[in-house]
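Hello forum,

I keep getting stuck at the same step: I have a sequence, I want structure tokens, and every attempt I make locally crashes halfway through. Rather than fight my setup again tonight, could one of you with a working pipeline run this one for me? It's a single chain of 169 residues.
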Amino acid sequence: MIFKAPDRIIVGTIGAPGEREFFLQVTQGNGVSSFKCEKGQVIALVAKMREIMKEIRKGYGHVASTPVYDDLSLVMPLIPEFIIGTMALSWNELERKVILQAEPVTLDVEESDKDREESIEVYFSLEQAAGFILRCEKVIGAGRPPCLFCSEPIDPTGHLCPRANGYRR
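Reply #2:
Ran it on my machine without issues. Output:
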């Protein structure tokens, strides 16, 4: 699937903090496509996208006039096309677009050839990329707060802190 001119590109979650499931959702025209991903993938995606934006800024000066920030929720019903496995980001200088490529998780060698047809390519304008980064950071930060002592996430019921000799925090 190729999304050359997406209207909306967001990462969102469903579930309570500590049990959230992460989804990448792309809307183009009347179609909505959802892809399940991991929080770690979103964190890595944001870090790499920030790095690419920094390099573009060095080469072109000011890159995004106003970030296209989308604070709306995921479109339901949420039926993922596939679970994202590998991802890659690149910069298309001619189109001045950031490109996200993602392929599904493959469990079997025979399945990998079949699943290659299901990979996605999403083209971000610089404004969309800047807004995407802001949205992802907000979604990532909305999870469980970290413990002040050990930095591990604290569940609503507390947690056994290893730095406090197992006392509940």
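The chain is about 25% helix and 30% strand. If your local run keeps crashing, start a new thread with the error log.
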